[in-house]
Design goal:
The complex is a heterodimer.
Chain A: H1 2-32, H2 39-57, H3 65-91, H4 99-121, E1 126-127, E2 136-138, E3 144-146, H5 147-169, H6 171-181, H7 183-188, H8 193-218, E4 221-222, H9 228-241, H10 246-267, H11 272-286
Antiparallel strand pairs in A: 1-4, 2-3
Helix pairs in contact in A: 1-5, 1-6, 1-8, 1-9, 1-10, 2-3, 2-4, 2-8, 2-9, 3-8, 5-6, 5-8, 6-8, 9-10, 9-11, 10-11
Chain B: E1 4-15, E2 18-29, E3 33-37, H1 44-51, E4 58-63, E5 66-67, H2 73-79, E6 81-84, H3 96-101, H4 114-124, H5 126-130, H6 141-154, E7 159-163, H7 171-188, E8 191-196, H8 199-205, E9 208-213, E10 216-222, H9 223-228, H10 230-236
Parallel strand pairs in B: 3-8, 3-9, 6-7, 7-8
Antiparallel strand pairs in B: 1-2, 1-4, 4-5, 9-10
Helix pairs in contact in B: 4-6
The chains are: A mainly alpha, B alpha/beta.
The complex binds adenosine-5'-diphosphate and magnesium ion.
């Protein structure tokens, strides 16, 4: 039972990192019907921006909540800028082109970030320093709470609350959801569609950047291909929840994070990375629209 | 003579090789209801989409005397040219209230009057008020059409482009919708360009009307005149 609680806490922390990334996949899919393959790489870029920010901007900072928030903000802003550049120069010119063109472009952007990243950051893994004072808290009954896991969970939760406000309570959020139902009608009634799509990229990329930093906190070794696996898993989480559905992305990600941790803890960690793909196959066979998604099936 | 809210000159639209509009010209005087009637596929929706900046076109369109041919849809909404789309162009995944809030999305000048205009919308369509927090997709067809019109009104249109508001609705609801269109025009002074297949009802409430036939205007006249026209009677009113 104690072990179970421990795994659950770890799973929630991992799941909330997936959730931050999955949200970007699902939001961009909502407005553009595009699976933004470069999104996992923005997560990687965010992690590196965080790292370089610590190295060059605040080299002497002690690990603290304040340091962590500064690094988080730097990574979010940097990633958002990368997201804007990608949207404006790679995707926007293709707005009226066949869907397959923009999909292939997304794959191209992804490769560019991965191998461009190796050029800029170097190919070998780098150590992500502590930005939080790490404490192992014994809360009794053999349960050891890692304060980092808790902070990851809390910070993700706060970011998701902010996002939820933006999406469900503001004119931007209404416009975004309107576009995800019908871009044509949204345009017709006076929504500035390009502006809303751009803001969607800004928010999605900023969340991915934040996730990159939190990932560095949890697994402090980062390299330019870092975005591949977590990116793919976050995408699977979004599909599991129902791609295009914001609540679904969070639910899918938490389910995936928890089940990965349970499988690694109770069965064997060799199966952990395969699990996401097993889930993907099951979802596609049984409920292709995802848990909260529509029944509509899309061919890419 | 500058009393025309909208002037359309030689408007042409192509979809690939198909010419959907072959150079039509017409105008909508300020404060009037003008309708564009015609069969399915005649090019009515295309006309409205071209005017509101939602489909590439040739020719000239002016609004309040200024050419708007190169403006984007959201800019035109900002100027008060509001398009109420065909087929209940509401967002079923948003609540009734959220749909109404989008009525001011591109229309800054209407922002401060939102509450007032919301009340006006509820007076016209009391049924919307009871369903304010429901997802719009759960409304009946008639209620969805009411919502689409109410949303357009919240943006304080100077010119309302209304695309087939009676499509697929029960006769009772159709009657109500047309009454509301007249009310909007007479009481609120909104200029209306109405597109309809339901020629009889449309002509009854129109000051002036044009008949659109496969991309060209074949006939025009006062609403009452067209109601008595033999060709119109035969083809559009189903009388013999
Ligand atoms: N997006 C489109 N692509 C190709 N053809 C279209 C498109 N929209 C409309 N059309 C064609 O243009 C003509 C006019 O259509 P439309 O304006 O919708 O007519 P109406 O509203 O009078 O029923 C029709 O022949 C229709 O098939
Ligand atoms: Mg039509």
């Amino acid at each position: 039972m104690n072990e179970f609680i421990q795994h659950t806490i770890n799973g929630l922390a991992l799941g909330s990192i997936y959730a931050l990334v999955a949200l970007g996949y699902t939001m961009v899919f909502g407005v553009l019907q595009l699976i933004n393959f470069a999104h996992g790489d923005i997560f990687m870029v965010g992690s590196f921006i965080g790292l370089y920010f610590i190295r060059f901007a605040i080299p002497n900072a002690e690990p603290s909540i304040f340091t962590a928030i500064m690094v988080l903000i730097a990574a979010m802003v940097g990633s958002a800028i990368v997201g804007v550049i990608i949207e404006k120069f790679a995707y926007r010119p293709l707005r009226k082109a066949p869907r397959i063109n923009i999909l292939i472009t997304a794959i191209g952007v992804s490769l560019l970030l991965e191998y461009g990243g190796q050029l800029v950051f170097g190919a070998s893994p780098q150590f992500f320093p502590d930005i939080l004072p790490r404490k192992l808290i014994d809360i009794g009954g053999d349960i050891i709470l890692d304060s980092n896991q808790l902070t990851i969970f809390v910070m993700s939760f706060v970011l998701m609350q902010i996002l939820s406000f933006l999406v469900f309570k503001t004119q931007f959020g209404r416009s975004m959801r309107a576009i995800s139902h019908s871009l044509e009608t949204a345009n017709l009634i006076g929504i500035n569609v390009n502006k809303v799509i751009l803001i969607t990229f800004i928010i999605g990329s900023a969340l991915a950047g934040a996730a990159g930093v939190l990932y560095g906190v949890a697994y402090p070794k980062i390299d330019p291909l870092l975005g591949l696996l977590p990116g793919l898993k976050a995408f699977i989480a979004a599909v599991l929840g129902g791609i295009g559905n914001i609540t679904g992305a969070v639910i899918g990600a938490i389910i995936l994070g928890l089940s990965e941790t349970y499988v690694a803890g109770y069965i064997s960690s060799t199966y952990r990375d395969a699990l996401a793909f097993v889930i993907l196959i099951i979802v596609l066979l049984v409920r292709p629209g995802g848990l909260l998604g529509s029944k509509k099936i899309e061919k890419v | 003579m500058d009393a025309n809210t909208l002037v359309v000159e030689n408007l042409k639209v192509n979809y690939g090789n198909v010419q959907a509009l072959k150079g039509i010209s017409f105008s909508v005087p300020k404060g009037k209801i003008v309708s564009l009637i015609g069969a399915n596929g005649a090019g009515k929706t295309t006309t409205l989409r071209a005017i509101s900046g939602n489909c590439p076109s040739n020719g000239n369109v002016s609004f309040h005397g200024h050419s708007i041919s190169n403006k984007q849809s959201y800019q035109l909404v900002g100027e008060g040219l509001i398009h109420c789309p065909e087929g209940r162009g509401i967002f079923p995944n948003l609540t009734v209230m959220e749909n109404l809030q989008l009525g001011i999305v591109g229309r800054h000048s209407a922002k401060e009057h939102f509450q007032k205009n919301l009340q006006i919308g509820f007076e016209l369509f009391p049924r919307l008020k009871e369903r304010i927090s429901q997802a719009a997709g759960t409304l009946s067809g008639g209620e969805q059409q009411m919502l689409a019109i109410a949303r357009a009104l919240i943006g304080e249109p100077e010119l309302l482009l209304l695309d087939e508001p009676s499509l697929g609705l029960a006769p009772q609801v159709v009657k109500l919708i047309f009454e509301i269109v007249v009310k909007i025009n007479k009481e609120k002074g909104v200029t209306v360009l109405l597109v309809e297949q339901n020629a009889k009802q449309a002509l009854k409430i129109s000051d002036y009307a044009y008949v659109l036939e496969t991309g060209t205007i074949s006939l025009e006249g006062k609403g009452s005149e067209l109601l008595d026209n033999e060709d119109v009677k035969k083809i559009y009113l189903g009388e013999h």
